[in-house]
Amino acid sequence: MLGWNTQFSPFFLHFMETSNKRAKMNSESIDFLKSYNLSLFPKPESIITVNESDTLLHAVQELSKNDILCAPVLSEDGVITGVIDMSSILHTILHPLSTLKGVKTVLEDIVALDTLSQQTIKSKPSLYLVEEIRLLSESSNLFDACKLLGTLNYHRVIVVDESNVIVNMITQSAVIRVLAANVDKFPDIADKNLERLHLNTPSTIVSCPSTCITLAAFEHMETNEVSAIPVLDSTKKILGNLSVRNLRELITNSRCYSTLKRPVTEFLAAVVPDTDRDEMYPAISCHPTTTLQDVIAKMAVSRIHRIYLQDKEDNLLRVVSLSDVLAVLVTPNAN
User: What is residue 57's predicted lDDT score, i.e. its pLDDT?
Assistant: First the structure.
């Protein structure tokens, strides 16, 4: 007669014990997330969208002017056809720029970039991120959104009303800001440090040296499919952070363009104000003893999408992303 084998391995028993502890630890955060209706989520004064017929330059200007990294793309009849963001634009502009390295002057490079920017979004299929479109109704809750944003690799969700009209677009960063304002609602997990939350496991980090040419650094980001990389000195310590967000200055501010073929530290010096540079290092780094509450606060205040975990000697261990933080809050109940 067939029967179940009741001899469980030590690994399985440890896994079940850890899962049960995390489930109990996460009960407060999950209760809060489920009680927070998306109709209560902070809304912008207006939803910024772009049309398929708009030029790439117009899209970048809209993103930069409104200090956002992405926007829904609408067809002529107002249907959402995709989402355009800075990472897709980075992918589009780097190829023509890379062919000009060491051949043209900076002025001629700008002309070449402007010519590309006059092309419409519709003519560039790579700008459409259809696979990232996920709609939620206003009756959904923050737990539903965090499952998508934290465990299913979505960077944003679009909220629609009963008529399927866009009323909000919730990003990972926006959720972090809400969490920072309500961190007292889930102290059991917010007060835990990264080590206790199992977020201190070393992993491979994509980075670049301070001597790297800016264009090469952006190409390095594209090749490795990441939206930001730490800039390291000769001893592998963090000097700064190069992000897709910086690309806005590259395109819209001609004064910064001259640093494209200079070391990445010169580019960061041109696009990041002195006062921000002074505070950049502590804002983008943390240690295993740092609490989740402190990580959330750093991400919310500095509007960064990732924080770099270091050991006692300030050696890099791993990246703690927005997805990691949100996943901790919804695990293990999320699918």
Answer: 80
What whole-number distance in Å separates Cα of residue 96 and Cα of residue 98? 6
Number of C-alpha atoms within 13 angstroms, CB side, residue 250?
26
Handedness of CA 174, 176, 181, 184 (dihedral sign): positive
DSSP letter assigned to residue 308: E
Phi-psi region of 304 (alpha: psi -120 to 50; beta: other; left: phi over 0): beta
Burial class of residue 81, CB neighbours in 10 A (0-12, 13-18, 19+): middle
Which residues pair with residue 321 across a beta bridge? 306
Q: What is the DSSP string of 151-181?
A: HS--SEEEEE-TT--EEEEEEHHHHHHHHHH
d(C-alpha 88, C-alpha 69), whole Å: 10
Q: Which two tokens stand for residue 135?
A: 């709609």
CA dist., res. 194 & res. 295, Å (int): 9
**Band of residue 111 on the pLDDT scale cut at 50, 70, 90:** low
- Answer with the residue of higher pLDDT: 197 or 19: 197
Cis amide leading into 273 (omega within 30): no
* 68/154 Cα distance (integer angstroms): 17
Return d(Cα 175, Cα 159) in angstroms, integer.
13
What are the backbone dihedrals phi and psi of residue 285, each rounded to the nearest 5 degrees, phi first? -130, 155
pTM of the model as a whole: 0.79
Spatial distance between the Cα atoms of 331 and 329, rounded to a whole number of angstroms = 6
Q: Please tell me which residue, 283 or 166, carries the higher pLDDT value.
A: 166
Instruction: Give the residue carrying structure tokens 């590259």.
Output: 250
The SS3 of residue 85 is: strand
Task: List the structure tokens of 185.
Answer: 């609602």
pLDDT at 334 over 70: no
Q: What is the 3-state secondary structure (H, E, C) of 185-196?
A: HCHHHHCCECCC
Q: Which residues contact 162 (CB under 8 A, 6 or more apart)?
A: 137
The helix or strand, by DSSP H or E, that contains position 7, with its residue range, turns out to be: none
For residue 330, the SS3 value is helix
